[in-house]
Design brief:
This protein is of the alpha/beta class and about 250 residues long. The chain has helices at about 20-30, 45-55, 65-80, 105-130, 160-180, 220-235; strands spanning about 10-15, 35-40, 55-60, 85, 145-150, 185-195, 200, 205-210, 210-215. About 40% of the residues lie in helices and about 15% in strands.
């Protein structure tokens, strides 16, 4: 494992109180210059990251090619060329949850694929263009692209066809990019989180909006997910991992 370079620039696309915030805090503490992009960057949780950790905030609709191109241009201008990019967008619209194939709105299904998989393509495209121009570090690496994925990338659940379709598409994209870019020094990793993610609430507990409060570590902890992402970024190229499935010790699989 190589130490983090103080010149590392991390960009997290998709901003919220869970994985994105945990990654931003950890990456900043590790000496990286960190940016977070979201459709609504004025969220209080993202403002706190800026105030407490110096994280730069950017507005971006990750489904819009010109927006994504502009985001990367701004990050390069303000912080430098990214060496770590995390695509952390779930993509589901609220109305698609638990809808059977006969109930699902086709427009919402299309929007889910667009939000999750197409945005991943756009982000990875811009990241790859920049990283391939980065000078290799002591490990021979030019950068790392990490895709947060979900259980649906591994198993299509009932009443979840649109999300399964989107997650499988994201996995296919990641696998193709890994074969294309890793021989050129860009590490690509797909990370399905096979669990509910319980993030820290104001009272100190960890909870998920649908699954309730975490009991005995039965939900994934975003702080430890962030540690796994940082370890992926620091892996030696002789043992680069492509797919790392994270699940709590009690998860049935």
């Amino acid at each position: 494992m190589t130490p983090a370079n103080v010149q590392d620039v991390a960009l997290i696309v998709g901003g919220g109180p869970g994985i994105s915030s945990s990654c931003a805090r950890l990456f900043a503490r590790s000496g990286m210059r960190v940016a977070v992009a979201a459709r609504t960057p004025d969220k209080p949780v993202l403002a706190a990251l800026e105030a407490d950790h110096g994280v730069r905030r950017y507005a971006c609709d990750a489904t819009d090619p010109s927006d994504v191109e502009g985001l990367f241009r701004s990050v390069v201008r303000d912080l430098g060329s990214p060496t770590l990019v995390v695509h952390n967008i779930d993509g589901r619209t609220p109305g698609i949850f638990r809808k059977t194939i006969t109930e699902a709105d086709p427009a919402m299904a299309f929007e889910t694929v667009r939000n999750a998989a197409f945005s991943a393509f756009l982000v990875a495209q811009q990241a790859a263009r920049l990283m391939l121009e980065n000078p290799p570090n002591a490990n021979g690496a030019r950068g790392t692209i990490i895709f947060t994925n979900a259980s649906a990338a591994l198993k299509g659940y009932p009443a979840s066809g649109a999300f399964a379709m989107a997650c499988h598409a994201k996995s296919g994209l990641a696998q193709s990019l890994a074969r294309e870019l890793m021989p050129q020094g860009v590490h690509v990793a797909n990370v399905p989180i096979d669990a509910a993610i319980g993030w820290t609430q104001e009272d100190g507990s960890r909870a998920h909006r649908l699954a309730g409060t975490t009991v005995d570590d039965n939900m994934a902890d975003p702080d430890h997910i962030a540690e796994a992402y940082l370890q992926l970024h620091r892996q030696h190229r002789s043992t680069w991992a492509f797919e790392v499935v994270l699940r709590p010790w009690v998860e049935k699989w």
